[in-house]
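Worked example

This section walks through a single chain of length 195. The input is the sequence exactly as stored; nothing has been trimmed or padded.
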Amino acid sequence: MAFLARLQEDLRAAGSHDPAARGTAENFFIYSGLHAIWVHRLTHRMWQNPSLRFPARALSQLTRWLTGIEIHPGATIGRRFFIDHGMGVVIGETAEIGDDVMLYQGVTLGGRSLAKVKRHPTLGDRVTVGAGAKVLGPITIGADSAVGANAVVVKDAPRESIITGIPATWRHRDAARESAPAVDPAEYVDPAMWI
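Given that input, the structure is written out below as tokens.
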């Protein structure tokens, strides 16, 4: 995919994932999650060439300093990836992230081993990871799953899972339960209207 087409795709993804997004220009200049992924795409390409690994790491560290988001150049990240807010996100070297994935602030995709093997998680397509969640080790989170805020995930979860708790457990999504409003809209009716 051409550079400009990918840039536009990322900007559309940001707009569709964030109800606070006010427009393409603002997203382009303000969203640190977009800046971090754009630099990651460059550093990941550099990482493929062993003679460019030091500059790739140096650039990724500079981006970490500027955005508060640390993405190792070795991580593999799919299309339309979005990080909302972003501060404190850490993505390890052997992490693999599918398409249309969204992370919130404070998420760690980390390792649990010092061995030089696959030690970071794999997230399937359309996974959402809530604020502060820690997904640790060479585990797989199946497509269309959601990880709750502050969960600590150390075991695989199948596709279409809701994963919550410390240590996290999973359950299958319940479409009927998730389509119902979390709060009764009647609670938001202005009492002055009843007078």
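What to look for: Confidence is low (pLDDT under 50) at residues 187-191.
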